[in-house]
Amino acid sequence: MTANGPSPPRPPPPRRPPPPSARAATAAALTEAQRRALSGEALGLLTEQLTARVVHYRADLETNSELDAITAQVVAQVRALQDVATAGQKTNQPVEAIERDQIASLSGLLKRMLGQRGSSEFLTHWIGPVGKRVAKLFFESELHERTKGNKERVIQSSAQGLCYVLARYSNRLRSDLEGFEYADTEVREATFERLEKLSAEFRTEFLSRRSPELHRIMAIFSDVLADFLAVGLESDRDNFAQIIIRKSGSARGAGSVGYKIQREAFTGFRAAWEKEWMERWVTFASERFVARLNAEDEPFMEETVAFFVDPHLYSETAVVLCEAAYDFLCQEGLLDLPLDWRVQLNTR
Fold this sequence. Notes:
This protein is mainly alpha-helical. It has a domain at 31-54 and 92-147 and 210-344. It has 12 helices and no strands. The radius of gyration is 27 Å and the shape is globular. Mean pLDDT is 76; it is low at 11-24, 53-63, 146-151 and 344-348.
């Protein structure tokens, strides 16, 4: 109150700007050197992923020596029949003619696989598995600070800070608890259970706050992936097929034929395919991601922008789509995959 009447209303306090990491992070376009480096890292991760899976391939199944022997005999018979059938159809075509036929066949199958723009059955079938891997990768990057680079993240919530600390010192905490004496086994188990519940509570609270941004990410990612298959590959499939066949040398091996890529040529085919796929995917997607991020009205956090230049994003996508493409080409009769090729490929 004042002598002349009620006090005038106070003006609202000035609005404080959000912390730097919560502001709109401008995504900078990658240079050619940065794209090559990103592509190389992603390709290396893809190879590591395939190699790592070999150790655990069907490891949970019990083996039976008698059944293994029968299986080996059947495999040998099937391969012998394939070799006889192929030998009867071999011609003395020059390498150039074989190469030309393989390129035309691969290009034609790519057209069927990729479909018309926006109507790719291949993408429709595989967008779910790819999306799950991307979502898992996003949350893992949040929990393990994979995308922070050389900077420490700015903590946006108490749950985030506690989540990081508990994750970082999880082994130390468990080790210290192991060193205590407990009244009985029940108390000991309850202690470890409570630690796990505490960690899970903060982890769930933190990730739930990041879920809305994940939904936005997936919308952008799905659009960019669809554009890549329709524009980045389908519109240039003849050139893509030509590069793969010529670089793989699939037409120059002994017994090569124009209508099929022999299983002996698959290792070279795969190496050429994945290198060309990755270079195109990184170049196309990184540019589109930058454009989409900067066009959004609602800002993204810095960690989200960094996520789109994380090589794991590209390798996780490729490991699903490349393997699916090999299976498609095999089912269509062009690519002669070795039996259990996922194992044989990495154990030769």
